[in-house]
Write a structure and sequence with these properties.
single chain, 6-stranded antiparallel sheet, globular
Length: 584
């Protein structure tokens, strides 16, 4: 038995997947009559960990093996060298990790956390389990058996006399909705207000220009925002913004609801430990909630159907919805949702006999919130005072079933009107300029060049010209991003650029080919002049191809064998002389 009567579930997430898994675990435990609480790890006071008896950690690995933003402070504390090796000896724990095995540092965050907790004396009650997004069933393939293991393990810590709540009985909603035309107490209304425009700095859009040719398949926009003179950022930093749903889809969604659309409401948590969501503004109307909170254009996860099916009164629809909640039905769910990237809005419309019966309260259990999006800042404050610039590739694609899809945030940004004011915040990026004036080698194909505009502008303003950029795109005349900036810097002897236009000739040429062609120069820069390498761009193939090119240079120019070359590159990484910022 444990001293605390509840299980604490802490999640570290970048995209919301870990939070979704944490909520599923919570519902799973509630059905077993076990008290549990889900907490964003960033909102948790880490020093309280010494008082916890049983904690479940759910965490994702993001970028190039990095911790999610909301987990970095927590992890920094755990790494303190003055923590005794028995400081967590009273803690029982388990870790479920979410990652993607196509990345080199698969689930490295979960592995590090698990190892560190054991080092601090905590007891692992279930072996570390790693969900893999590459599996045909996604992380559910690992989560389903892990939940069964959790059930059997956790019952040894609690005395439970009541039988489990059956799967066909809905759990109470996380929040009870109270419309403001009902009688509200002063405390209910005043203690729950929130306005993002008052909580974060504001930026005014002063330029929004497409910078790729009109006949080019990929639209890329250069946006310039005016900001307050008190705001500071450094090259490599990131701007974070909150997108909104498109008006047409919002109206579609609202047409499915049977509640007052323009009356303010508040939420009453069903559990005193459940925090209120960050709806903007709050209190708000259902219409405002549909615009800025509900992520109706995301692909529904399995947890969506675990709530949705309870309200179906149509036999055929209910049968299909229940199937989507079972382990056996996951392949069917993948074919229905993931393969065509079907949205929550489309699913709600696909089940017309079920959707009208879903109480509005339960939508907060079913539909995730719109998450903020991060963009590398493409400007230096010294060159563009009171501004930050973004370089945004507008996401438009066809699914495997040839369904057209659009990225929520990039399309929202591309359509923003001049003069629009938006809330934002600045966070530290994963690539940082060196403190000294050593040479920098930048590899930034496509919009990966965005942070390097900031880098080169910053160094050029200080008269530092040892800057080398490897830029790649398809066509010199169609998508040579920031070409005028680069060429002007080259004329001023502040930049040396190597370009790879992959489709301007029969044989495709990429940045890794240009890197390979300049082996002696690169070796001189990193070996003799202690230069720093930066790589930014798409996370799937580019970083590995570039890494291979650098490895070949290290082997050939340094006359090293395979093992020695690997160690050399690892040393560069450890010394922050090989930095990567990638995105999916």
């Amino acid at each position: 038995m444990i001293s605390n009567e509840k299980v604490l579930i802490l999640f570290g997430t970048q995209t919301g997947n870990s939070e979704d898994v944490a909520d599923r675990i919570l519902r799973y435990l509630k059905r077993m009559h076990i008290k549990a609480q889900v907490v964003d790890i960033n909102e948790y006071t880490v020093t309280n960990l010494v008082n916890e008896s049983l904690v479940i950690f759910v965490c994702s690995t993001t970028g190039n093996g990095e911790f999610p933003d909301n987990m970095k402070s927590f992890w920094k504390f755990l790494l303190r060298k003055n923590l005794p090796s028995n400081s967590l000896c009273q803690l029982n724990f388990c870790v479920f990790g979410l990652g993607d095995s196509s990345y080199e540092k698969f689930n490295v965050v979960s592995k590090k956390l698990n190892k560190r907790l054991i080092q601090l004396g905590a007891t692992e009650i279930i072996p570390l389990t790693l969900g893999d997004d590459q599996h045909e069933l996604g992380y559910d393939a690992a989560l389903d058996p892990w939940l069964l293991n959790l059930k059997n393990t956790i019952l040894s810590f609690f005395t439970v006399s009541d039988p489990p709540i059956p799967e066909d009985v809905p759990l109470p909603p996380r929040y009870k909705v109270k419309f403001c035309n009902e009688l509200l107490t002063t405390d209910e209304f005043q203690s729950t207000t929130y306005n993002r425009n008052k909580s974060f700095p504001l930026a005014t859009l002063k330029k929004n220009e497409r910078v790729t040719a009109v006949d080019h398949f990929q639209a890329v926009h250069h946006l310039e925002f005016e900001i307050d003179s008190t705001v500071h950022y450094d090259p490599g930093d990131v701007a974070v913004v909150w997108p909104e749903n498109p008006p047409e889809e919002v109206e579609d969604f609202l047409s499915l609801l049977n509640v007052p659309l323009d009356t303010n409401f508040i939420l009453i948590p069903s559990d005193v430990n459940t925090p209120l969501p960050k709806i903007n503004p709050y209190p708000c109307t259902v219409r405002q909630c549909a615009v800025s909170y509900f992520d109706i254009l995301s692909v529904p996860r399995r947890s969506f159907f675990e709530v949705f099916h309870h309200f179906s009164q149509d036999e055929l629809e209910k049968e299909k919805l229940v199937e989507f909640t079972t382990a056996a039905g996951q392949e069917e769910l993948y074919d229905y949702c993931n393969r065509p990237r079907r949205t929550i809005l489309e699913v709600l419309k696909d089940f017309p006999h079920t959707t009208p019966h879903v109480p509005f309260d339960y939508l907060f259990d079913m539909i995730p919130s719109i998450r903020p999006r991060s963009f590398s800042i493409a400007s230096a404050l010294k060159t563009h005072p009171q501004e930050f610039h973004l370089l945004v590739a507008v996401v438009q694609y066809k699914t495997r079933l040839m369904k057209s899809r659009q990225g929520l945030c990039s399309n929202w940004l591309a359509k923003l009107k001049l003069g629009t004011i938006i809330p934002y915040y600045i966070k530290r990026g994963s690539i940082v300029l060196p403190e000294t004036n050593v040479p920098i080698i930048m590899v930034g194909p496509g919009t990966g060049c965005a942070p390097f505009r900031a880098f080169t502008e910053e160094r050029a303003s200080a008269g530092v010209g040892d800057n080398y950029l490897f830029f790649g795109c398809r066509y010199k005349t169609k998508d040579f991003l920031f070409s005028e900036v680069w060429l002007e810097l080259c004329e001023k002897k502040m930049l040396t650029i190597f370009t790879a236009f992959s489709r301007d000739q029969d044989e495709k040429i990429y940045v890794q080919h240009r890197i390979a062609e300049n082996g002696p120069l690169i070796w001189d820069l990193i070996q003799n002049k202690k230069g720093v390498i930066y790589i930014a761009g798409n996370a799937k193939q580019m970083p590995e191809g570039v890494k291979d090119a650098f490895m070949e240079i290290i082997k050939k120019q340094g006359n090293l064998n395979e093992d020695e070359s690997v160690k050399y590159l690892q040393t560069l990484e450890h010394m922050k002389r090989y930095q990567i910022e990638t995105w999916a």
